[in-house]
Amino acid sequence: MSIVDALTLYAAEHAPTVERPDVILGSVESLGEFWAGMTVAQITKKTCKDYVTWRTAQPDSRYKDPEKAPRISDQTARRELEDLRSALGYAVGENKLNRVPVVHLPDKAPAVERWLTRDEAARLLWAAWKPCWGQTKPTNMKDENWRELKYMSRHLARFILCALYTGTRKSATLGLQWLPNTVSGRVDLERRLIYRKAQRQAQTNKKQTPVPISGRLLPHLKRWKRFSTTHVIEFEGAPVANVKRSWVSAVQRAGLSDDVTPHVLRHTFATWAMQSGQPIPLVAGAMGTSEKIVRDVYGHHHPDFLRDVVDAVGSY
């Protein structure tokens, strides 16, 4: 069986059933370019290593200037090879292939534990709310254009507050709507709940459990609803698909490092919850993840972490 045939089958039949088919389709495109003309039997440790070398020499296509764009990371290549392995497994399940060959992956990078302090979070939020604060209006710019520029990233402030006070992932936060729907989550102000997934949406590994709306977030949501159409995060009346550009600008204005990504808000939620002494099962439930992940990744932030051990030794 050709590798491209296995990838095509996976993209056509499996990708439409997942929450982010675009991720699989992106992987299939890159994998297909490298493995074109090769059969499954040609998947070896060397060819997998060659794929990583080839992929990490390419610029990130999200940047306009290929010369200035960063190279693709080995972790991206690793995820794409994982998709290749899944595609081969799918082909076996469809009786198109007898077995799944070993797909050799580069080493997995250690987990990133970056989170924001209260001061850093305040600076980031202020940078999103007042992007041009302290700057002088250019002499050739109209007043109405200057006002629009000053407040053009306030949708980012909404995103930051929602993600920071609920621990919800970026895509689920951006998809939040005010009314029940079949494509994304919604905000229920009457019950003070945020439903992270749509009605009748299939459950995935990302649990997307409902989360209560905190007392700090509730007044913001009530105010935003009066000035919104369908989505919680909007720009000029339209839903926001991505916050990449406004996020990078706000991080720079806030004087934060480049490792502060939107996912850091979820890490911050978990870290603050653990630092306040909240039980691990409750933190896991609020985040929609497993207790093991919370314990392994954030457990050391808990004020009672290993306290029983040192107390036991001290009383021996």
Describe this structure in words.
- By secondary structure, the protein is mostly helical.
- It has two domains: 3-93; 118-301, Intergrase catalytic core (hpI Integrase, Chain A).
- The protein has helices at residues 3-13, 21-35, 45-55, 74-93, 118-129, 143-150, 154-166, 170-175, 218-226, 244-253, 264-275, 280-287, 291-298, 307-314, and strands spanning 186-188, 193-195, 211-212, 234-235, 238-239.
- Strand 1 (186-188) and strand 2 (193-195) form a beta hairpin.
- Helix 1 packs antiparallel against helix 2 (21-35), helix 2 crosses helix 4 (74-93) and helix 7 (154-166) packs across helix 11 (264-275).
- It starts with a helix and ends with a helix.
- Keywords: DNA integration, DNA recombination.
- InterPro entries: DNA_brk_join_enz, Integrase-like_cat_sf, Integrase_catalytic, Tyrosine_recombinase_XerCD.
- It holds the Pfam family Phage_integrase.
- Residues 136-311 form the Tyr recombinase domain.
